[in-house]
From TrEMBL:
The gene is LOC109063365. Its EC number is 6.1.1.18. It comes from Cyprinus carpio (Common carp). Coiled coil: none annotated. PROSITE patterns: AA_TRNA_LIGASE_I. It is an enzyme of class 6 (ligase). PANTHER family: GLUTAMINE--TRNA LIGASE (PTHR43097:SF4), GLUTAMINE-TRNA LIGASE (PTHR43097). Keywords: Acetylation, Aminoacyl-tRNA synthetase, ATP-binding, Cytoplasm, Ligase, Nucleotide-binding, Phosphoprotein, Protein biosynthesis. GO terms for cellular component: aminoacyl-tRNA synthetase multienzyme complex; cytosol. This is Glutamine--tRNA ligase. Its main location: cytoplasm. Residues 3-161, 164-257 form the Glutaminyl-tRNA synthetase class Ib non-specific RNA-binding domain. Monomer. Part of a multisubunit complex that groups tRNA ligases for Arg (RARS1), Asp (DARS1), Gln (QARS1), Ile (IARS1), Leu (LARS1), Lys (KARS1), Met (MARS1) the bifunctional ligase for Glu and Pro (EPRS1) and the auxiliary subunits AIMP1/p43, AIMP2/p38 and EEF1E1/p18. Interacts with RARS1. Part of a complex composed of RARS1, QARS1 and AIMP1. One of its GO terms (molecular function) is ATP binding.
Length: 776
């Protein structure tokens, strides 16, 4: 060990760094070989400091050790002598895994022999400064100097970065002169994230990180624009090996060639839900990302049910998942099931055992929990013995939990030998009693991706720990290996989306079912009246993020209002009716009401107007108050769309002293002074039930013990649902179908609920109008 420390210290590592390096056996071995090769090339000369640093950096980043001597030669002979050249060399090797490299092509890609003179640097920077001169003079030192450096580095790829920066700084100083006090003032922060219209100022953006870097800007960009082409820096089909961390085997290029022949270079993604629950708002992001990425790049997306756990799967979930995908506007290229491949997956498991990569284990489930479990005593059992036992598992000769098939590998989170197959004596919804052993997610997912020739396996960040097992298993079986890309989950405050917790809410009667409009499952959002376009817009505006994103519901509601404002026809409804008799109305008539007052060309409907109308109780006050603009005994009010202004003549009260009716007179709005306000009304209306929804929980994070010590069930908002059983609505909505949406003028946006009958319509309030209080 002391000898190795001395060897490492000979290239400039301090003693502590040398000892830390020794802890990594693979790195130590490779570094020792590199040093020995370097000494062989140098003879009696020592390795200079620059070359030693380059050598160490190369070894720590080299993924293919067969290229060690090749790169060592270039470093020691000073053909590669900068970090920029080294990065280019490593990238070239990663993208050219074939055995014989073209040295001329390699040297051209790495800038070997290229000399950039000071005169060339000066001339190139001068051109760039001239290009941006007007903006520089206008913005002075507030100008983004990174733009200048970026263009200079592009024009002078192999120049020394420090020299380039010094030249840029010098020429900027020459143009602008020294910084003034005004230049030193802090530039105000500007949020370009205009996703949420007027409510954006209430949002905390600090945790929003866009892929692939935090400088991305989604303002005004559709989801397709965010996902198209180079936007995400994803690999092109067939160029999987260019992805950081992708494992290249001797057969990789042949497998990729075959993959391209079968797919024609087409982008292929998949959305792989487990059919054991209803999709929620987080899944909407996954659906938009998987289907959207394929659509944006002229590819295809599979809907694949990960149906490997027969104990929890029900047909209603299969149906609801497909329905929600299509509701969001996406059509799967094909609907597949993991169970379609049960026989092939079994055959591959047998092959995995034969290759020495899997074994049958008798450790019980409780022994396998956690991350520091001891190695299985059966890990090295003979292949033939594991094959025999696996066959006996298949034939039902063991009890549940008695044996499993485990893979010989260590996951990124340190978990050792994950389970590939377990026994479950539960009939499968598609295969019945054919199987009593079922594959796990860790075994099934990557293999189904490979079988379907998926190019981009997009999944949420929690699956990053499974990436190494994903690559390992495909390579262990010598199969085409897709690339797994992870993105951050989308969460909302004031809700729970866990299947287990939603089931608890249903079982305790707090909510009616998975589609209760207070939940954020997709079926619940549809029932509440959220348009699919609004959900898609919300996902697009949140952006594709690496970090987990937690948003507030009002931001989603802003997207809903934006869509419904353009698509929901207007109607009039009264939630708390007050009867009004117009004593001087000559005769009953009809009033034409525009469906969209801002664009009357989009249509209209007719409503009756008679001597008896109903207004909101809140639109009348017996005693005038400062700032109140609606009806009082001393203040007239206009009736929307009717062309009349009404004035109170008599206030009628019931035995308890409550106002129950008004007698008024009307005058044409053309013949009197314009009133301070116009209110909505109904005449000869339909009776209906209206359900008003508020947040289901009182706290932002009901699952957080720090906020809600007694648990999420103790945090229920008692006012989350208000039912108004005797509301009134105009007859224009009488023929509405379930999920039809309306704007009830001055009240909010509403959607017709499936509980509606021919005798009684039921409306759910989707969102409020958020109008200026002065208008109401």
């Amino acid at each position: 060990m002391a000898d190795m420390v001395s060897i490492f210290m000979s290239i400039g590592l301090n003693e502590q760094k040398a000892k830390e390096t020794l802890k990594n056996e693979a790195l130590s071995s490779t570094l020792k070989k590199a040093i020995e090769q370097a000494r062989g090339l140098l003879g009696s000369a020592s390795i200079d400091k620059t070359a030693a640093t380059m050598l160490y950096n190369m070894v720590t980043r080299l993924k293919d050790p067969t290229r060690l001597s090749f790169l060592t030669e270039y470093i020691i002979t000073r053909k590669i002598n900068s970090e920029l050249q080294l990065s280019a060399a490593l990238d070239f090797i990663k993208s050219h895994p074939q055995e014989n490299l073209d040295r001329l092509e390699f040297e051209a890609a790495c800038g070997v022999g290229v000399v950039v003179t000071p005169e060339q640097i000066e001339d190139a920077v001068e051109l760039i400064i001239r290009k941006h001169k007007d903006q520089l003079l206008a913005e002075r030192y507030r100008f983004n100097m990174g733009i200048l450096m970026g263009e200079a580095r592009t024009a002078l790829k192999w120049a020394d970065g420090k020299i380039v920066k010094n030249e840029v700084d010098m020429q900027v100083l020459h143009l602008l002169g020294p910084k003034t006090e005004a230049d030193l003032e802090k530039k105000p922060k500007v949020y370009f994230y205009s996703v949420f219209l007027k409510e954006r100022n209430r949002c905390n953006y600090k945790n929003v990180i866009f892929w692939p870097n935090s400088e991305a800007n989604t303002e005004g960009k559709s989801l397709m624009e965010q996902l198209r082409g180079e936007a995400l820096k994803f690999h092109k089909p067939g160029e999987n090996y260019k992805t950081e961390g992708y494992v290249v085997t001797p057969n990789t290029m042949n497998l990729l060639k075959k993959h391209l022949e079968e797919t024609g270079g087409q982008v292929r993604t998949r959305f792989p839900p487990e059919p054991n629950g209803i999709l929620h708002i987080g899944h909407a992001k996954a659906i938009n990302f998987n289907f959207g990425y394929a659509k944006a790049n002229n590819g295809i997306c599979f809907l694949r049910y990960d149906d490997t756990n027969p104990e929890k799967e029900e047909e209603k979930y299969f149906t609801a998942i497909k329905e929600m995908v299509e509701w969001l506007g996406y059509k799967p290229y094909a609907v597949t099931h993991a169970s379609d491949q049960f026989q092939l997956l079994y055959d591959l498991a047998v092959d995995l055992i034969r290759r020495g990569h899997a074994y049958v284990c008798h450790q019980r489930g409780e022994e396998l929990k956690g991350h520091n479990i001891p190695p299985s005593p059966w890990r090295e059992r003979p292949v033939e013995e594991s094959l025999l036992l696996f066959d006996r598992m298949r034939k039902g000769m063991f009890a549940e939990g008695e044996v499993t098939l485990r893979m010989k590998m260590v996951m990124e989170d340190g978990k050792m030998d994950p389970v590939a197959y377990r026994i479950k004596y539960t009939p499968h919804h598609r295969t019945g009693d054919t199987w009593c052993i079922y594959p796990t997610y860790d075994y099934t997912h990557c293999l189904c991706d490979s079988i379907e020739n998926i190019t981009h396996s997009l999944c949420t960040k929690e699956f990053q720990a499974r990436r190494s097992s994903y690559f390992w298993l495909c390579n262990a079986l010598d199969l085409y290996c897709p690339v797994q890309w992870e993105y951050g989950r989308l969460n909302l405050t004031y809700t729970v989306v866990s299947k287990r917790k939603i089931i608890k809410l249903v079982e305790t009667g707090i909510v009616r079912d998975w589609d209760d409009p207070r939940l954020f499952t997709l079926t619940a959002l549809r029932r509440r009246g959220f348009p699919p376009q609004a959900i898609n817009n919300f996902c697009a505006r949140v952006g594709v993020t690496v970090a987990q994103t937690t948003m507030e519901p009002h931001l989603l509601e802003a997207c809903v209002r934006e869509v419904l404002n353009d698509t929901a026809p207007r109607a009039m409804a009264i939630l708390e009716p007050l009867k009004v008799t117009i004593t001087n109305l000559p005769t009953s008539t009809e009033v034409r009401v525009p469906d969209f007052p801002a664009n009357e060309a989009k249509g209209s409907h007719v409503v009756p107007f008679s001597k008896t109308i109903f207004i909101e109780q809140s639109d009348f006050r017996e005693v005038m108050e400062k700032g109140y603009k609606r009806l009082t005994p001393d203040q007239p009010v206009g009736l929307r769309h009717a062309g009349y202004v009404i004035s109170v003549q008599r206030v009628i009260k019931d035995g308890c002293g409550k106002v129950c009716e008004l007698e008024v007179t009307c005058a044409s709005s053309d013949s009197v002074e314009k009133p301070k306000a116009f209110i909505h009304w109904v005449s000869d209306p339909l009776r209906c039930e209206v359900r008003l929804y508020e947040s289901l929980f009182l706290h932002k994070n009901p699952e957080d013990p720090a906020e809600v010590p007694a648990g999420f069930l103790s945090d229920i908002n008692p006012n989350s649902l208000t039912v108004i059983g005797s509301a009134l609505v105009d007859r224009s909505v009488g023929k509405a179908k379930v999920f039809d949406k309306f704007q009830f003028e001055r009240v909010g946006y509403f959607s017709l609920d499936p509980d509606s009958t021919s005798e009684k319509l039921v409306f759910n309030r989707t969102v409020t109008l958020k109008e200026d209080p002065g208008k109401i």
